[in-house]
Amino acid sequence: EYKGSISSVYTCDISKQNDRIVGSGKDGIIHVWSTSSGKQLDFVSGHREVITSIHFNSDDKFILTSALDG
């Protein structure tokens, strides 16, 4: 079980190094977890609507999102 998890995951991605998972639910908050410990590493808010797509970029330095709020 991942701590700080969300009730319904709408979209998620795993880093290329397989060390982090990023996901979001209908609250528009981005959650980042460690795959080894299951602990939440960070969370970011900013979207006002559902995040429909979330991905790490090619070198895992950035998280890219799209949402219903544009």
In short, what is this structure?
This protein has strands at residues 11-14, 20-24, 30-34, 40-44, 51-56, 63-67.
In what range is the share of β-strand residues? 35-45%
Q: Name the helix and strand elements from N-terminus to C-terminus, one letter apiece.
A: EEEEEE
Radius of gyration: 11 Å
**Low-confidence sequence ranges:** none
Give the helix level as a range of percent.
under 10%
Task: Describe the largest sheet.
Answer: 4 strands, antiparallel
Average pLDDT across residues? 88
Count of helices?
0
β-strand number: 6
State the end-to-end distance. Answer: 31 Å
Name the features.
70 residues, mainly beta, single chain, 0% helix
Polypeptide structure, described:
- This protein has 70 residues and is mainly β.
- The protein contains no helices and 6 strands.
- Strand 1 and strand 2 form a beta hairpin.
Annotate the secondary structure layout:
Elements: E1 11-14, E2 20-24, E3 30-34, E4 40-44, E5 51-56, E6 63-67
Antiparallel strand pairs: 1-2, 2-3, 3-4, 5-6
